[in-house]
Amino acid sequence: xxxxxxxxxxxxxxxxxxxxxxxxxxxxxxxxxxxxxxxxxxxxxxxxxxxxxxxxxxxxxxxxxxxxxxxxxxxxxxxxxxxxxxxxxxxxxxxxxxxxxxxxxxxx
Length: 108
What we know:
Elements: H1 13-26, H2 28-50, H3 56-77, H4 79-107
Helix pairs in contact: 1-2, 1-3, 2-3
């Protein structure tokens, strides 16, 4: 894992164009409702995973649905600001992982 974080999160132009077109076609409120629906289905899959009763293929599809609808919401919010928030969250995660690994080494 590299210590350097990107300036932009890499999404394919095809995904960005398609998700922007979905927001333009159905509108932000409809896509927000769709995101809620997809996230709810993903929550159900995660609960099943915790009970060791999930279908991994179905879970992959639900995750893809969530990802696509959340990218649509990022367009609604302002994609560049979303990108900046992603970089900030990645940095926090990077620090948390480094701190965790340092603590594990100290305990050993």
